[in-house]
Amino acid sequence: MAALFTDWEIAMNKTIRGVRLDVDGTLADVQLPAGDGLAGELCRHIGGRAEIAHYARPDGTRRLAVIVNADEAVGGLENLYATSLVSGIYVRQLPYCLRGPLVLLGALDDSRHYTDIPEKLHAILPKVMDALKVRYGTTT
């Protein structure tokens, strides 16, 4: 019996779970297409041309992909929340400030496809943002 779907067709229908992090610390879950259309959806969520950075702890664990608006990388609003979060994951202070809204995804898998944001990180993000809102004086 022939397979109903090829691996390529399954990949085209798969989605990736990510989180959008705005400059005010607001979080929003996003579902992105795993195949064609990923770049366009990322651009839509960040409001411009996507630039992707990969961060991990020095031992290679806790890997994360961070998608920023390349056009806001210099002149956009500082995203202190994202900078603090990524510095904590990276285990050292970033020498620059991330800017504008961004999307957090899991690292690339062995086949060079992005993965879902790690569940442990996703679960703790609201608490981290609440703590940072106290730090940056933007509590609601």
Number of helices: 5
Largest sheet: 6 strands, antiparallel
What's the SSE pattern?
A: HEEHEEHHEEH
**Structural Rg:** 16 Å
Distance between the termini: 58 Å
Percent range for helical residues? 25-40%
**How many beta-strand segments?**
6
What global shape is seen? Answer: globular
Q: Which segments are poorly predicted (pLDDT under 50) over 5 or more consecutive residues?
A: 1-10
Q: pLDDT average, as an integer?
A: 86
Structural class: alpha+beta
Roughly what fraction of the amino acids lie in strands? Answer: 25-35%
Describe the structure.
The protein has helices spanning 7-13, 38-46, 72-75, 80-90, 119-136, and strands at 15-21, 27-33, 50-55, 64-69, 102-108, 114-115. With 140 residues, it is α+β, with helices and mostly antiparallel strands. Strands 1, 2, 3, 4, 5 and 6 form a six-stranded antiparallel β-sheet that branches. Strand 3 and strand 4 form a beta hairpin. Helix 4 crosses helix 5 (119-136).
Produce a short descriptive summary.
By secondary structure, this protein is of the alpha+beta class.
List its traits.
140 residues, alpha+beta, 6-stranded antiparallel beta sheet, 25% strand, disordered N terminus
Strands, helices and their partners?
Layout: H1 7-13, E1 15-21, E2 27-33, H2 38-46, E3 50-55, E4 64-69, H3 72-75, H4 80-90, E5 102-108, E6 114-115, H5 119-136
Antiparallel strand pairs: 1-2, 1-5, 3-4, 4-5, 5-6
Helix pairs in contact: 4-5
